[in-house]
Amino acid sequence: MPYHDYKIESMGSATITPKGSFEAGSWQAFKLIYKVGKFGLDDWGGISIGLRPHFDGSKLQKTEPKKEGYITVETSNNDPIEFEIESRRLIRPRMKSIFIRCLRFLKENDEIIIRLGDKRFGSPGLRMQTFCEKIFDFKILVDPFATQDYIPLPKNKNPFISIVPTDGKNWKLVAPSLKRPNNSFRISIKCEDQWGNPSNKINSELFLFSNTKIVNLPKSVFLKTGKFSKVIDGLKIKEEGSFHVILKNKEGKVLAKSNQIVIENKKFEHFWSDMHGQSKETIGTNSAEDYFDFGRNKSFLDICGHQGNDFQITDKFWKDLNNLTKKFNETGRFLALPGYEWSGNTAVGGDHNVWYIKEGRPIYRSSRALIYDDTDIQNDAHTSKELIEKLKNENAMVVAHVGGRYADITYAYNAKLEPSVEIHSAWGTFEWMLEDAFRENYRVGVVAASDGHKGRPGASYPGDSLFGSYGGLTCHLLKKLDRKTLFKEFRSRHHYATTGARIYLNVDASFEKKAKLLKDHNDEVEHEKKDFLMGDAIKTNESFFNLNVDIKGTSPLENIKIFDGLKLIENINPFEISTKKRFRITCSGQHYRGRSRLVQWACETILTRGKILKIKDINFWNPKRKPKIINEKKIQWKTVTTGGFSACDIWLDEKALNGLLKIKTNFKNIEVKLKDIIEKEKTFQFGGMDIKLNIKCLPDKLNNSSYSIKKKMNLRKGNESRIYIKVTQEDGHQAWSSPLYIKRDK
After folding, report:
1. pTM as predicted
2. pLDDT above 70: residue 621
């Protein structure tokens, strides 16, 4: 049931000092004072202070005065009091909380004083969360009658602060990955702080350079204090090829290099989306309007969708969301999609995204767990089977995904509604979702999104909490940017997924004779042709086809894999090892498909001979938790994985190659000869779903960020091949193509 609202204006008030704005990740100390209301507080009554679950600052604690996050509580009259720090005790989304109980009654105007990050006894204070929030409020709930039935203060009486970005550190230059010659495009510039928040504390002239002539590209631009980004529109490139833009400061230092811009006269162009995330109206951060504004103006998306948990979306908020998507949607510039997350338990189908092609459609909820009215209850869909039935006459799309709950596509599936599965988000990497589809003989594409709760669609850093990865992106192959075209091509699986980098990936198939293109959801023939895109379903009488792959990375390429369904058919290392002094140690995997998937890693590497020259971290998203060189022979690190991976590259001197590499982990201790690793990489399995540690040798430097494959692929009679590509870059980013489904008739 909801919190009681009895005499809500008589429940007292609260203040916080200091007030104002505080930088993400900064150290602070606050005094929160609750002033008792009209009824007083009965003995064994008290208050609770609720925080949102994704607060990733200092862990609150009350037992170690010299450590961070130390909290003290007292009353103005020194009355006896006790308190506990709890999780998942208050109603969602206030899933982190402080419960305070009075052991003697308090009168009106008595005070309870809570010091958060109390420095009086040696604590460094309270480290703030890593992401920005306009209104970071401390929700106060009051139990004046000792009934354990809490009454919240009115919203305007809850104390709040603001979390703002720090100084800019990492420059980003975002460009389109595929455009036609002479078609207009834009490039976008921002500078993120160490936590990934776009900073508005830059005041600088920036200089632009390119390896080709770009019409209307200025020589320089200004990014002024107070502005989060700079967008340059109306650019054109006349010639075909692959190009880039470089950003420099006035001293000539390179600040950023854009992703590769491919100019080619294709039937389609690339448009990038993050169609999956939440705002504060459900379990996320900042408002839904802030959410769409960030996607358009701070992460420079072409397509954005909002996916609030259905059991928290009231009818009013559903109407507001539809008004927002209509407001932000601009054909040819930025698509905002109406939709929601069907958030059923895994036992009845699990999490599924739902998007509509237009506003004004019903919301078919999995439950009303946090909604307290029964309006239009006939629209509820308590299982994914019921959801499919409700949506069968709607112009809608559905995608199964893994969040807190994971989707079970073996429970229910509809090919017409569900063209793809989500295999990467800030929650982790879930290739097993695609593998489940293969086992069930479904034809699905692959997408990625952030599923972020920190208000940063399209640039969703995991911060310092349960999220283990940087949020993903999907690249859509579209003739033009409008909802009708998006839905048509999405249903044809003409898209690919990445872990957030704008990697160019082209995968197609060609035949000597015409083959049959099948409809997106069944075996009906649409027409015949010779050339096909990723995602297409094809029937042919030929015994082979030509696979054509073109990759242009945002970083040098480390590995390329070609799969036929569940089978790896080729493993390509796009380099030759000339020098053999660099080794990559990779931690990866997950315990379980559900919420308990997160794997904690504690690792230490020790050389028996020689010394470590340098190290580099891969996918260590927390800047405060990077691998550290302890001495010339030892490195230590801690990390978490949730289906994806973190890695540490180490460069060694010549003497080290004749010795052993010892790796201590919280799972098992490992000892290998480095010369053996030079010959062949080794993998050690640690249980769970796929928890493992891999050691391999890499060249001292990788240079090749582009790679092409032209390969004749044989087809077996009566068999359907499911060909897709997986790309891994040196920097840890990955991409997956939607499979080509090719069936050779008997």
Report:
1. 0.96
2. yes
